[in-house]
Amino acid sequence: MRGDTFDRALTSLDLAPEPGRVAKLVAIYREHDPAIALTPDAASFLAAAQAAGRPLAAVTDGPLASQRAKARALDLAAVCGTVVFTAELGPGFGKPHPRAFEAVQELTGRPHAAHLYLADNPGKDFGGPRSLGWATVRVRRAGSLHEAVATPDDVDLEIADLSDLAALLGLPAP
Predict the structure, then answer these.
(1) DSSP secondary structure, 23-62, as one string
(2) Check: CATH 3.40.630.30 for 40-169?
(3) Which of 124, 115, 3, 5 is nearest to 61 (CA)?
(4) Which end of the chain is more exposed for a tag (fewer CB within 10 A), N or C?
(5) Rounded to two decimals, what is the model's pTM?
(6) Which regions of the chain carry the CATH code 3.40.50.1000?
């Protein structure tokens, strides 16, 4: 649940969810260095794509401090080379706006149809890249936040695991 998580947590501790207290908790949450890692299938897929010489990019959405911390924790710059933070593009350019995907195209210099976008959130992930003619693949992981959300028509393929995509793309085993 999002939106009032800290209010509910404070209330459960018999503490008043005062705006200043909630704001401080939100700031701590957004600015902490997360202890996260890629899922094993994602790490294998990215290694295989790198070994095959496939250019990779990440488009990340949300508060800039949070997204930078996640990108550092996952070492996305080394894994993908290109990381586009939608928050750096200015207000109104978050997903599903196509601007971040246009930035990836500018950096790769490849035609629209040469791009494939892989994501998990049907609510915001696919409209932007699809509007540019990119292929789209949804990862619907068991137990994920968006698992129960229906896959929209603007998704070309749905998979449960990135090993499925690696096989479809003919990527070598890492």
Answers:
(1) HHHHHHHHHS-------HHHHHHHHHHHHTT--EEEEE-S
(2) no
(3) 124
(4) N
(5) 0.85
(6) 40-169
